[in-house]
Every structure is written in C-alpha cells, then in structure tokens.
C-alpha cells in the first residue's frame, strides 16, 4: 500500500469516527430533549384528567359534565392516540376518555405509582405511559394514567437519522477523495526526489536534489541527502585521484625493473654486470615495496575508526622506538630528542594518549624520515621535542634542510604531491598525507611551517588519554 493511499485511508477513518460520534451525540440529545418535552405534555394531560374527574363528576347533570370537559380541552392540545384512565384505590377504572384501547394498564405500573408516590413513566416504541397519584379528601387516593404516541418525535428522529446518515456518507466520500488528492499533492515533492535520486549515478555525483530550499520535512530530507552526496562526491573524487596517482607511482618502479631485466637479457653479461643489474633491480624492488606499504597504510588509516584497535600508548616510549628505527634506516642522520622533564616528573602519564600503536609509530617515522631526507646537506642535527601543555601532547620535529615556499607548503597533504625543490630526493609524496590521516583518526592535528632554504617544522598534537572519549 502506498503512503498516499495510507494517508487518505487514515484521514478518512479519523473523520468517520469523529462524524459517527458527533452524529450519535446529536441523536441522543435530540431524543432526550423530545422525550422530556413529550413527558411534560403527558404529565400536564394527567392534571387535566384529574380536574375533569374531580370537578366534572361533581356537576349535577351529564350535560354540565360534558360542557366542562369540552371547556378544558380548549386549553390543551389533543395528543396522538391519547388515552386517559382514572383508577380508584381498588385499581378499578372510574373514569376514562380518548381512544380507549383494549390493552389494560399493567398492575405493576399502578403499584409502583402507589409505592413511590411519584410520577412513573414507561416508554415502549415511542408510546409513553405516565401514572400519577392524586389524593382527594372525599374520594381518597386515585391514580391517573395517561398514554399517548409520540408520533412527532418518531417522525422527526427518523428524518434526523436519514439526514445524519446521508451527511455521514457524503462527508466521508468527499473527505476520502479530498484526502487522496491532497495526499498526492503533499507527496509530489517526494516523487520528484525519487526521480532525481534514480537519475544520479556514480558518473554525475555533482547533481543535487532540487527540493532542499524549504523548511518542511521533505526539504530537510533533501538537504540531508545533498549533504550525503557532498561526502560521496568528495570520497569518490579522492578515490579516483588516489587510484590515478597510485597507478602512476607504481608504474615507475615497475618500468625500471622491466627495463633493467630486459637490458640484462639482450646479451651475455659478466658476473659483475649481472651483480650490478641485480643491485639495481633490488633497489627498484625496495622502492616498489616501500610504495606498496605506504599505500596500504593510507588505506588502513582511511578505514572506519571504530574498526581500529585503540589502547593507551606512551608517546615518549614510541618516540624512542622511532628514533632507534631511524638510526637503523638512516645511520648518517643525527636526531636529538628532548622531553619536558619537569612536567613528566609531575605526572607519570603525561605523555600517554589513546590510539593505535602501529599507526602512531608510522606517523612519527614518516615525519622523522622526511626530516632526514630533506636535510642531508645540513650541518645541524634534527631536533625532536616532546612536550605537554594543558590537555595536549605535542611533538615538534625541526630540521634545517631545503624547506619549501608557501605555495608548496599548502599542498603537502595532497597524496603524491612533491615540491619542486625536492624532486631529486627519493620519495613518493605519501608520508605527510598518511600522517594527517592517522592524526585525524586519533583526534589530533598536524601542522607544517617551512621557509625555503631555511628549514621545516612539523608539529603533531594529540589530546591526552584523560580527555579522549571512547
């Protein structure tokens, strides 16, 4: 069932219940009002009958009694199928007038009137019978019973039933059709959104939904979906750029490997030449291995943070481990370490952060290795300073190497970007982008300050473990 049909049916059902309750209330109160009005008229008729009986029977002759009865009837309207009876203390009819029916008055009614000494009303199919107890000093107690058919109420209530039923069915039909139409109008923006979404493919993620400029729920949905498309477009663009650049970077060492091997196979070589060829291919293979590992690390750092195992990591110990690894990789590179000893003495866990040890080690190694590669001709050592201020832990790596201009500095976090001044230095341009992704996963940040031919400062900042919420 479509939403439009469901809305129309629900609206019609609500209206049907409302109209039904309203109609029942109208009918009930109309019935009660007319019943009370008719009972009052019938009660007045019993008083007339009592006066006729008491005063009329005291007259000297029958002509006088008949004249008196006609006189009283001028003041009261004759009721439909009216019948009146007077019962003495022995429940014997002593007076009656109107349309006399063969059906006797139930004795239970007479007993109830004598016992309760209040008017008793009995109703059956719009015919009311009312019994009233009267007391006369000479004749004693007697019961006046008046009965009549409420034909006017029967007719009016029957007409009211037809009117309410007709109005109920007509209103339900009109509201059902109107609800169907207005539900269709209300859901038309949703249909347009569905059509626009169906038309969006991976090749045109730049398209956006057109219903996002309002303040209603449909516009809010379109705005959220447009935000989702923004993120998808950014992710797809980054993926395409990553695949294009990675393919280009992988092609270079592979071409070098194939070239070296093809040249070596063109003719017979001496053992020294073969050894030189093997060393060259080994260097290209190492380059390819390093590039592959870097690409895998970028892919791992781009994963969902919830899928990465986190734990408490001591950055001071991790920095010492990275320093030892760099001494093995770059034995000619000098790296001096400095720690905030005073702050460390105050708090043993001052350099403790929450993160993934392998990824954090890779980030620190990337920064140290870049400093070593780009400051080989410098006489000054690289300075790595680990400190803590407030709720943050900061690692600053300062080198006095080639540096870069401002335009190149703004591009350092783009994968595979390499500045003009370092094109002759081996590398692939994935170290700092990888570091930035790792820092983002750990709620940290990375900043680069550099001046051409003066040096570069890379600053890594983490929140300490006590302020990180898992």
Characterization of the model:
The protein is of the alpha+beta class. The chain folds into three domains: about 5-155, 2-Layer Sandwich (Beta-Lactamase), CATH 3.30.450; about 200-300, Helix Hairpins; about 305-465, 2-Layer Sandwich (Heat Shock Protein 90), CATH 3.30.565. It has helices at about 5-55, 60-75, 105-115, 150-200, 215-265, 270-300, 315-330, 340-345, 355-375, 405-410, 430-440, and strands at about 85, 95-100, 120-125, 125-135, 140-150, 310-315, 335-340, 350-355, 380-390, 390-400, 445-450, 455-465. The strands form three sheets. It has a five-stranded antiparallel beta sheet, with helices on both faces. A five-stranded mixed beta sheet has the order 7-9-10-12-11. Strands 6-8 form a two-stranded antiparallel sheet. A hairpin with a 2-residue loop joins strand 9 (about 380-390) and strand 10. The protein is rod-shaped.
Write a concise synopsis of the structure shown.
With 470 residues, the chain is α+β, with helices and mostly antiparallel strands. It has helices spanning 3-56, 62-73, 107-116, 151-199, 217-265, 271-301, 315-329, 341-346, 357-373, 406-409, 431-441; strands spanning 83-87, 93-98, 120-124, 127-136, 140-149, 311-314, 335-339, 352-355, 382-389, 392-399, 445-451, 455-463. A five-stranded antiparallel β-sheet has the order 2-1-5-4-3, with helices on both faces.
| CATH architecture label name of the largest domain | 2-Layer Sandwich
Q: Biggest sheet: strands, sense, closure?
A: 5 strands, antiparallel
Average of pLDDT? 77
Our Rg estimate from Cα atoms comes to 52 Å
Oligomer: single chain
The low-pLDDT segments are 342-346
